[in-house]
């Protein structure tokens, strides 16, 4: 659980990311009614790495990052800032993050959301290497 907290803290602490979304970075579900743009994260695979002695303590998790907004100008710079941040190693809290690798990038089609308007975005899959300290 600490990795999730530390990853979110890492993204919120990034000046380029927080200039766009502030604290609106969520795991699994965006708070209804919160303003856009925002980012939603999903752990796709835990990425446990094993040796013959068992769990190595090093993880290579697949994490999906959805950058969403009302206009391309809202979410494209957010994706660019995310990519620049995740490609750098960094230690945050109790988690040491190694360089992450972009494995997939997809446009999310605009969908009409009641009371909000058309919401679109970029969905990115990163292979995130990390270990607890």
Task: Please give a quick description of this structure.
The chain has 133 residues and is an alpha+beta fold. 26% of the residues lie in helices and 50% in strands.
- Low-confidence parts lasting 5 or more residues at pLDDT below 50? none
Order of helices and strands: HHEEEEHEEEE
Helix segment tally:
3
Shape: elongated
User: Helix fraction?
Assistant: 25-40%
How many domain modules?
Answer: 1
What's the CATH topology name?
Alpha-Beta Plaits
Tell me which CATH architecture applies here: 2-Layer Sandwich
Our estimate of the beta-strand percent is over 45%
Question: What's the main sheet like?
Answer: 8 strands, mixed
Rg, nearest Å? 15 Å
Give the tally of β-strands: 8
**What is the terminal separation in angstroms?**
13 Å
Provide the structure class. alpha+beta
Task: Give the CATH class.
Answer: Alpha Beta
| Overall pLDDT confidence | 95
Give an overview in words.
It is built from three helices and eight strands. The chain has helices at 2-13, 15-21, 72-86, and strands at 25-27, 38-45, 48-51, 54-69, 90-92, 95-97, 101-113, 117-132. α2 packs antiparallel against α3. Helices cover 26% and strands 50% of the residues. Strands 1, 2, 3, 4, 5, 6, 7 and 8 form an eight-stranded mixed beta sheet that branches. The chain has one domain: Alpha-Beta Plaits (2-Layer Sandwich). A hairpin with a 2-residue loop joins β5 (90-92) and β6. It is α+β, with helices and mostly antiparallel strands. It starts with a helix and ends with a strand.
């Amino acid at each position: 659980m600490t990795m999730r907290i530390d990853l979110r803290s890492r993204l919120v602490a990034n000046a380029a990311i927080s200039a766009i979304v502030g604290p609106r970075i969520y795991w699994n579900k965006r708070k209804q009614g919160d303003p856009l743009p925002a980012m939603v994260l999903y752990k796709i695979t835990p990425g446990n790495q094993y040796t013959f002695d068992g769990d190595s303590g090093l993880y290579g998790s697949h994490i999906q990052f959805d950058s969403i907004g009302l206009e391309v100008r809202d979410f494209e710079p957010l994706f660019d800032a995310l990519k620049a941040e995740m490609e750098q190693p960094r230690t945050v809290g109790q988690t040491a993050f190694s360089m992450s690798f972009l494995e997939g990038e997809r446009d999310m089609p605009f969908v009409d959301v009641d009371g909000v308007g058309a919401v679109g975005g970029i969905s990115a899959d990163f292979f995130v290497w990390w270990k607890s300290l």
